[in-house]
Specification:
With 103 residues, the chain is mainly beta. It has one domain (1-103): Cadherins (Immunoglobulin-like). It has strands at 21-22, 40-43, 46-47, 57-61, 68-70, 76-79, 95-99. The strands form 3 sheets. The chain has a 3-stranded antiparallel β-sheet with strand order 2-6-5, with no helix packed on it. β5 and β6 form a beta hairpin.
Length: 103
């Protein structure tokens, strides 16, 4: 009987199957009213357990926000206009961490 044989190498390829997770479940910041635009309000932070390049993501708002800006890399939140306590006592926004790459 004749038999052929070959050696195989099977690589397990990493996929982007972990989502970025924020360090806190809720962030609460205070900012004084009537400040000039550009005042730092706070910083949100997230991490991803994946290996590079799948651990890279940007931070952004879930929906458009007029009063605040977020630095997509550092998570620093700043005001974009003066805020007035008498017009609006608090602002509630949702921040997302979005992967650069997909599966």
């Amino acid at each position: 009987m004749c038999v052929g044989e070959v050696a195989l190498t099977i690589n397990v390829v990493d996929i982007n199957d972990e989502r970025p997770r924020f360090e806190l479940p809720v962030y609460i910041f205070d900012v004084e009213e009537n400040q000039s635009p550009g005042i730092e309000v706070g910083v949100v932070s997230a991490a991803d357990r994946e290996l590079s390049p799948f651990n890279q993501f940007t931070l952004n708002w879930r929906s458009p926000v007029d009063q605040f800006a977020i630095d997509s890399q550092t998570g620093v939140i700043t005001t974009t206009q003066p805020l007035d306590h008498e017009l609006q006592v608090y602002h509630s926004q949702a921040c997302i961490a979005l992967h650069f790459t997909t599966n």
